[in-house]
Amino acid sequence: MSSLLKSVTLLKNIHCFLTKSGNLRNANQAKEAYGNFWYLWRKRMSTTSTKIPNEVRKSKNPAKITLIQNQNVSVTTLEEAKNLAKRRAMHLIQIQELDTKTQRPVYKLLTNAEILVEELSELKSKDSNAAPAVIPTKSAQKKPEKSLNIGSRISENDLNARLKNIAKWLSKGHEVRILIQSTANDTTTCDQIFKSIETFIKTPEEAALGKIVQKHSKGTAIKFSILPLANVATENTNGGKLSPNQA
C-alpha cells in the first residue's frame, strides 16, 4: 500500500474517532483533510493506470505473418501458426524472411509427404543442372521392377522411409509393385496405408510422381502397381493400353 493511501486510511480513522468522542470541530478538519488526500490518491491512480508499458503494448499486438497452406494464403500470428501446425501434426517452415510487398515474414504448413516431395524436386533440379540432358534409347527406358511388402503394423517412421524409397524408384523410371498385408484381419489399417501412399504420389498434382494401376483387394491384402511418369506418358500415347508386362 502506498504512503498516500496509508495517510487516507489514517485520516479516516481519526475522523471516526473524533466524531464518536464529540470533538466535532477537529472531526470536520480531519474529514476535510481526509477528502483532500482521497482526491489526490484517486487522481494518482487514474494517471498511473493510463500509462501502458511498451512491453504490454507489444504483447497485445504481436507481429503478423503470412501463412500458406494448400495454395491458401492467410494473415495470422506466429504463435497461432505454431498452434495450428501442432493440432494438424504438420510442419511450419519459413520460406521467406520478409516479403517486400507486405513487410511480413512468410511461412508454409507442410505435411511429411509434401516435405519429401519438395526434397525430391530439389534433388531433381540439382541433377538436371549438374548434367546435360540425355535422350535415352528404348532399351535404356525399360527399368527393372521394384517390389515392396508392407505390413499393417508398420510405424509412421518406417512408412515414411518406404515412401522415400518409392519416390526414389519412380524418379529413376522403375515400376513399383506393392503388397500391403494385415496380420490380424485389419483391413481398415491396410486401406489407410494405401491412402497414404496414393496421397503421397499425387500431392501436389503438378509434382505427381506416378500413377496407381492394377489395384486388387483380396481378403486382408491389397496389391497394386505404381507407374513412373515416363510409363504413364507411354500408356497415354498407346491409347490407354497397358504393355504386356503391366497387363
Instruction: Enumerate the spans where pLDDT stays under 50 for 5 or more consecutive residues.
Output: 240-247
Strand order of the largest sheet: 2-1-4-3
| N- to C-terminal distance | 88 Å
Mean pLDDT, as a whole number? Answer: 74
Give the radius of gyration: 36 Å
- Beta-strand content: 15-25%
Name given to the CATH homologous superfamily of the domain at 145-228? Translation initiation factor 3 (IF-3), C-terminal domain
Helix content: 40-55%
The SSE string, one letter per element, is HHHEEHEEHHEHEHEEH
Task: Provide the CATH topology of the domain at 145-228.
Answer: Translation Initiation Factor IF3
CATH C-level class of the domain at 145-228 is Alpha Beta
Shape: elongated
What's the story with the biggest beta sheet?
4 strands, mixed
Q: How would you classify the helix and strand content by structural class?
A: alpha/beta
Which CATH architecture of the domain at 145-228 would you pick? 2-Layer Sandwich
Care to count the β-strands? 8
Oligomeric form of this entry?
single chain
| Number of distinct helices | 9
Keywords: Initiation factor, Protein biosynthesis
Family: Belongs to the IF-3 family.
GO molecular function: ribosome binding; translation initiation factor activity
GO cellular component, one term: mitochondrion
